[in-house]
Amino acid sequence: MTDDDFNAFCAALPATTTVNQWGGADVWKVGGKVFAIGGWREREPSFTFKAGEMAFEMLRDQPGLRPAPYLASRGLKWIQHYASPGLSDADLRHYIARSHGLVARGLPKTRQRALGLLAG
After folding, report:
1. pTM to 2 decimals?
2. Would you give the DSSP letter of residue 71?
């Protein structure tokens, strides 16, 4: 996945915003809360996303993946795709969409409703 692909995919998710911060990273948010980060690279494009408990345990030791620097060290369940082979583009899109959902569901119901993320 390229940076442009990552940004286009994140932009297509509901109620997202982006800022460029933390040394030039593309930081994607839903309801003001971070769900994905593109940037923070060493050699290849890198993408960071929030993971559920089981996904974090499954992904953390896969080649090209690691607990996200700075975030996981604080006990947060975030994975960074930083090198090949990592995840396929389809799997990366899946986990980024799941991250968006995890973060969106953590917002107060009134905020979810205001953003059009919750019916009613």
Report:
1. 0.92
2. T
Task: Compute CA distances 83 → 31, 51, 69, whole Å.
Answer: 29, 18, 14
Rounded to whole angstroms, the Cα distance separating 33 from 48 reads 14
Q: Amino acid identity, residue 67?
A: P
Order of all β-strands in the sheet with 47-50: 16-21, 25-30, 33-38, 47-50, 78-81, 65-67
Digit-coded pLDDT (tens) for 23-61: 788 999 999 999 999 986 666 679 999 999 999 999 999
d(CA 46, CA 58): 19
Cα(first)–Cα(last) distance of the chain, in Å?
36
